[in-house]
Amino acid sequence: MIKGQNIVGCKHISLSGESFKAIDPSTGKHLDGDFEVADEQTVEQALQAAQKAYSSYKNISNTNKAAFLRTIAEEITALGDTLISRAVAESGLPTARLLGEMGRTTGQLRMFADLVEEGSWVEAVIDTAMPERTPLPKPDIRRMYKAIGPVVVFGASNFPLAFSVAGGDTASALASGCPVIVKAHPAHPGTSALVGEAISKAAVKAGMPEGVFSLLHDSGYAVGKALVKHPLTKAVAFTGSYKGGMALVDMARDRKEPIPVFAEMGSINPVILLPETLKKQPETLASKYAASITLGAGQFCTNPGLILAVKSDALNVFIDSLKKAIEVVPSATMLTPGIWQNYQNLSQGVAGEAGIDLIARSGNVNQELCNQSVATVATVKASEFISNHKLKEEIFGPWSLLVVADDAQELEAVVDTLEGQLTTTVMAEREELAAYTTLLDKLADISGRVILNGVPTGVEVCAAMQHGGPFPAASDSRFTSVGTGAIYRFVRPVAWQDWEDSLLPAELQDSNPLNIWRQVNNEWTKA
Description:
The chain has 527 residues and is an alpha/beta fold. 36% of the residues lie in helices and 18% in strands. The protein is built from 14 helices and 21 strands. The protein has helices at residues 40-57, 62-91, 95-118, 168-176, 189-205, 222-229, 242-253, 275-280, 282-294, 313-327, 337-351, 382-387, 408-416, 437-446, and strands spanning 6-8, 11-13, 19-20, 35-36, 125-127, 141-147, 151-154, 180-183, 213-216, 235-239, 261-264, 270-273, 306-310, 357-361, 376-381, 399-405, 421-427, 447-452, 491-497, 518-520, 523-525. The strands form five sheets. Strands 14-15-16-13-12-17-18 form a seven-stranded mixed sheet, with helices on both faces. A five-stranded mixed sheet has the order 19-6-5-20-21, with no helix packed on it. Helix 2 (62-91) runs antiparallel to helix 3 (95-118) and helix 3 runs parallel beside helix 4 (168-176).
C-alpha cells in the first residue's frame, strides 16, 4: 500500500489539511491514494532535521556513505513490479522504458557509491611548507572539496525515476555529504512515495542520521517556494522548463544569502546534416531522426527539435522519407494534461508563423486514450528562421523544424543566431568535416555536448558526460547533472593552512590513510 504522508527525517508524518490524487494521463481518471500537502511547518521541520543531520553526515566515512547508496539501490530494486506499475499509471510511459529507467536509477546510485568509496573525487591538493624560502617563507596549505549543506531537489516530470526522488540529483548530493529534501513532482506522487520510503528504509539500515532525507508533497508551488527561500537551504537542483527553472533562480537570488540553483532547462538540440552524408544516406537519416524525434512522445530535454541543412536533391529525398516515417508514427500518452495542452498550443502556434510549411503530421492517433501526442515536422527557409525568435524556442513534444539554407554561409548564419544548447549534432562524412571547421568550432561554443553521427536522445551515465550547457539550456554551464561530475554542484573548496597533521581531514594527512590520488607539490601521487 502506498503511503500518502510526507516523509520528514526518514519518518512518515500525518497532516490534517489539504490532499490531492494522482491522475492517469492516458484515461484522465484519478488513481488510488490521497497525498497530503505539506505546509510551512513541515518545511521547517524537514530543513531543521537536514541541518542537524548535516553536522554528522558530512563527515561520515566513505565506506558507510557508499553502503548507504548501495542500500538505496537494493531497496528500489526490491520494489519491482509495484514501482513500475505505479510509474506506468502516473506517467503514461511504457513498461520497458520505465524498467530501463529503474536500472539507470540504481546504476547511478552504485556509480556514486564507487566514486565516494574510492575517494579521490575530493581533489585533494597539498603544497607543503618552505620555511627557508626568501624573501618570505611559504606556509603549508592543503585544499579539498567539502559538502555545502542541505540540498533541495525538484522531481522531474519526464523521468519519474532517474531524475526524480532517487535520481541523479539526489544521488550526487548524498554522495557529496549533503542531506536532501525532495519536492515530489505532483504528476507522480505515488511513484515518489514508494521511492521515498525505499530511501528512508535504506537510511535506517545503513545507520544514517534521520534528517539525511525528506520527501514533501504539494499539488502547487507553495512548498517549493518555501524550500528555496528557507535560510538553511544551501543549493537547489531542478530539471524542467525554462520558466520553472528561472523562477527558482530568481527566488534564490532574492534571498538574504543567495544560493546556487542548478537548473537544467532544455533546448532545441540542433542537428546539422552536411551535404555528403545526405547524398549517401538520405533515407537512413530520415528513419533515424523520425525515431529520435518521437522517442518517448518527444518528451526528452535532448529531443532534436531543429534540423539544419543546405537545399539539394538529396535533401528532398530526406524530406520525402521523413514525411512517410512521421505520418505512420503511433501516438503516445504525454506525461500530463498540462504538458499535452502546452504542446498543442506551441506546435500549432509555430505552424501558423510566416514561412512555415508542414512536412508531415502523424495520422496514427489512438482515439481511445487521452493526451495523445501527434508527431509533427515542418520546414522553413533559413532567412525566415533567422529573423523570427519564436522559431528558436523549445516545443516539448514530438516536434521538429527543418531549416533549409541556400548555402554553407547561410547555414553558418543560422547557427550564429542560436542560444545555448544541451547538445548539437553533426551528421557528416569524415572527409567533409575539414571544410566546416569554423562551423564546428561555433557548435562547441554554444553546446554542452557535441555529437558526431548519432542522435541526441540518449544520455550515457558516465564520468565524461556533460549534461548541461550555456544559458538558457542550463543556469550554470560549468556543471553537469549526469555522470560523476554532478557531485561538484554540492561542494565547495576549503583550504587548511599550517595545521598539525593529526588535526587535518584524512584526505589531507601526510600518510594518505585513504590511499587516494592527490596533487602534492604539483605532482599527482598516492604517496
